Structures are given as structure tokens and as C-alpha cells.
Amino acid sequence: MKITKKIPDSFKTKTNKINTRDLVIPPSEKTNIHNHHDREYWSVKSGEGVLYSNNKKVKLTSGDYIEFSPFEAHTVENLGNEDFCFTSYWYVDWESLLAVFDQEQQFDSKLMIETAFPTPNGPLHLGHLSGAYLISDIQKRCCELIGIEYFSYCGTYGHTNHIDKTAICQKVSYDNLVSRSEEAIFTALERFQVNYNSFLPHFPSSEEFQYSKNMFLNLLNASPFLIEREVDHPYSEASKEYVCESYVAGGCPQCGEITIGIECENCGLYQDECNLIAPFHSVTKENLVLKPVNRLYIKLEKEISDKLLIQMYCNNNAMSRVCYDNYNKYLDKGNLKYIPVSSLRKKVYLYMVNRFFL
Ligand SMILES: [Zn+2]
């Protein structure tokens, strides 16, 4: 990123088809941080903005020209009292793009490609395929084409009561629903010609699954950020048991909409069922009371969340920038401070201190 008082020399206005757009950022607003393959410059018309790019923070005023290299991330925030107005000009600069491509060929380790694990409570639909599996498959095929070594993996995501709930509705056992759904998931991925270096099925549990699970739990148990807290947890007086995850519905503490205790369908923010307003049972509609219980949490210290933010910001790709913005949104709302890592089933806890049962 470079700031000048005239149109940047590197911007070939005569030989390229230039796109242009006028932008207005109202006071206290900012643009989503993003990057792209186009060569771009901005011409500031009025107002005052703060630009974040290339790990730098610079004040912008009327008359400034700002030049961005392809893939250079940028966001601008209006900290003044008037609108911040600028015009953006851009075009595709193939020469610069090929130079970036040459640099990126020089990976010294394998690229890890992870796809969101499907929940084995039914078959995949087109939304799953186009949303998660297609994009990782494109990345994988792209690596194969340009010779980047990669390791791709996926699996199924069990132990949530989405599965319990569906199994009850369909009058089948948990195991039966999981194995039937996994078979349907495998078939869909096969038909879609998606495959992975490693796929961790949840049931019947494979050696790879056991190995990965134990490795993860050992790391979790050893983590200095794993803490035990007493919390008020939704409880059913009728069945005399704690109620958890998607069995709990209630008002979202962020947006007020009725949601379930996992993630709000309306605002997309993560929910701890203990924080839902006026909780009730999502199936029986019984109003739930709150009863204290000890639960395990990961405490996300500011130092750790800052490190993660920097890591995301420095990864020079658009997806990391989307994650950066969303992660910031979670942090701003304060709902990642304590992340529950144990869950209640029936009347007992699924863990004893320092020993998880799965
Ligand atoms: Zn919400």
C-alpha cells in the first residue's frame, strides 16, 4: 500500500479496462476487511478515514491517492463526524498476478484442507455440497493442478442432540440413525466425486477416529485454559434432568429472537444454552428452571484471541479475512469468553474432572 498525491504510476490507465465505483462510509462505520486479485487505487474526495493495510494504520484525507497491490488486504474506518467519500478504480493486472502465483508455489510444508464435518442425522442436500464440500474440493483440485502438496480430511460430527432428536422423531436408535446417515453421506460425496486423504466416520468408530479423539482429549485435558465453573443450567422439573443444546430454546441474548442452545439461526452467533432468556424445552415446550451445576469451559484469554486474530489477518487470502471479520464480531459481542466443552446427557455429567467419557 502506498499513498501519493497523484494517480499511481503503476496504474496503467490507457492499456486496461478500468472499473470504477464511488463509495461513502458514514461516521463510525467501516468496510469489511478484504483482498482481491485486482490492482486498485482509491482517490479520496472528502472526509477523514483510517486505513488498515499491510499491518499499517494510516490517516486518509481529501486529495490522497492510495495504491494497493493485488491480494493486499485493506479496510477503512470513518472516525470523523462527516461522511468519508472516495472513488475506487481497479482492473486485473495479469503480470502482477503471475508474479504472486510464482511466489505461492514455494510452500515448504503440506497445505491442510479441512471441510466442515456433516452431522450424521440425515443425508446431505445440495446446500451442503455447494456450501462446504464444493469449495474444499476446488481447493484440492487446484493444488493437484499446480503441484502443491496437501492433506485433506473430513468426518462426521456426532455427539450432538440433533441426532438424538431426529432419532426419537424417526423412532430409530441413535446408532441406527448414525450408520444409516453416514452411508447416505458417503454415497452423496462419492456421486459428487469428492474424496479425502482421511475421513473420520463417527460410527462404527474407526481406529483413526479413536486415535484422533484421544489425541484431542489429551490436549484438551492438559490445556491450562480448561477450567471448571459453577453455572446455572436449564433443568426440567418434570423429568428431573438437565436439558442441553438443541433441546433448550429461548431468547437469544444478542438479538432477542427465539433460538436453540447451540447457535442463533437469526444472528448467527454462538449460544451457550445457560445464557438463553426464559428457556423452555424445544420439544415438550415445558418452561425450564435454572439449577446450578459444575461444567468444563475453555477460557479464551485476550492474549490467545489476539494471537488468533493476527494469524487470521496475516494469512493472505480472502477466506481468512472473512473469518477475521466474523471472529471479531463474536469477540465484540463477548460470547466467546467461556466456551463450554462438556455437555449434560440425562441426569449425569459426561465427564469427571480430568477424565472425559465419550
Ligand atoms: Zn441471535
From TrEMBL:
Pfam families for the chain: Cupin_2 (PF07883), tRNA-synt_1g (PF09334)
Q: Where is the Methionyl/Leucyl tRNA synthetase domain?
A: 112-333
Q: Which residues form the Cupin type-2 domain?
A: 24-86
Q: Which UniProt keywords apply?
A: Aminoacyl-tRNA synthetase, ATP-binding, Ligase, Nucleotide-binding, Protein biosynthesis
Q: Which InterPro entries match?
A: aa-tRNA-synth_I_CS, Cupin_2, Met-tRNA_ligase_1, Methionyl/Leucyl_tRNA_Synth, MetRS_Zn, RmlC-like_jellyroll, RmlC_Cupin_sf, Rossmann-like_a/b/a_fold
The GO terms describing molecular function are:
ligase activity
Task: Determine the domain of life of the protein's source.
Answer: Bacteria
Where does the chain cross the membrane? none
Q: What reaction does this catalyse?
A: tRNA(Met) + L-methionine + ATP = L-methionyl-tRNA(Met) + AMP + diphosphate
Q: Which family does it belong to?
A: Belongs to the class-I aminoacyl-tRNA synthetase family.
| Protein name (database record) | Class I tRNA ligase family protein
